[in-house]
Amino acid sequence: MNAVVVAIGSELLGPGRRDTNGEWLIGRLFDLGIETSWRAAIGDDAPRIARVVRAALHDAGVVLLTGGLGPTEDDRTREAVALALDAPLTRDPAMADRIVALFAARGRLAGPRQARQADRPYGMAWIDNPLGSAPGMLLERDSGLLAALPGIPAEMRAMFDASVAPGLAARSRGALARTTLRIAGRPESFVEDLLRDLYDREGTETTILASSGSVELVLTARGTDAAEARARCEALAGAMRARLGIDVYGADDESLAVVVSRLLVARGATVALAESCTGGLLGAALTDVPGSSAWFRGGLLCYANDLKTSLAGVPDEMLRAHGAVSEPVARALAAGARSVCSADFGLGVTGVAGPAGGTADKPVGTVHVALADAGEGRAVRLDWPGDRALIRRRAVTVALDLLRRRLLA
Length: 409
Hints:
25% strand, five-stranded mixed β-sheet, Alpha-Beta Plaits, six-stranded mixed β-sheet, single chain, elongated, 3 domains, Maf protein
């Protein structure tokens, strides 16, 4: 059984607004063994909402709506659901009385607008709202379930868990398990080619995602119960780990910085940084990890060339001969950070993050990352196009992965 989650409210279509209700519902559905096939955010337009609800009912056995059940004119979910079901919208006198009594208990007078919350499409049942005045609506059929819940998160969550989840649990067939493998140092196409034949294992599904120099493999497995689902998921993850080896740096919510921190602690080692184009982002990633003072010595922010020389000891003649964006300068930055901060390892980053400053031989996206240690160290050149933010995030990922691989050597 699949589900569709629809968030209703024009405010959700503005920049920077997240549908947190939808995200929460998708997680709860997963816990109940129900996969979400698609989700939508719709403005306060009843005919448009109705079209989406009809499509959702056609596609999925479970349809969950949030928002648009309040008393104001722009709350149009009731009308939209009535249109979608081709059912008349009727007022429930008992619910109207309940709303009046609820307001009276709070020392307030319920006006005509509040009475709209007692309207529902014919044939739908009420979902009690223990935290507010707007009730939800529920329609259960042999073929599926349609539930409309308020948009206020606390109300929506309480109503879902108390009145909707039990019915979904009874309808669910089996259980789901999910894990995410996190990969660094390999392009998405490489990972896909290496693992493609594993995607078709019975009862599993694999989604591959690329982001800021890393790749995520989201593995989902279904089983008759939670134990079987988890066993299938772990078996698939194990097979993929065996092929990818050191390229897998973590699982689920593990960040690359956290993994690096554990390796540094295990070795009793420390690290220091000299950053140019990343402007402190690498240091921020490392110091976001609790307890970083035990292994992070410090960093040098050497944006200007004269500071690369005065702070990190990069020879002036090297800058003139190779330019600031070069492997020799990145190596000198890493060595300078290691020496100045008395660390076991040093990382140096220099590059052209753009949007201006690129040349024919060093276009925007050219970044050099180097690691200094007691030996010869290591260096990597990146040539990845992108906007300024993406280039800098990728440089941070590559720097952390360079240190991780050295610590595992």
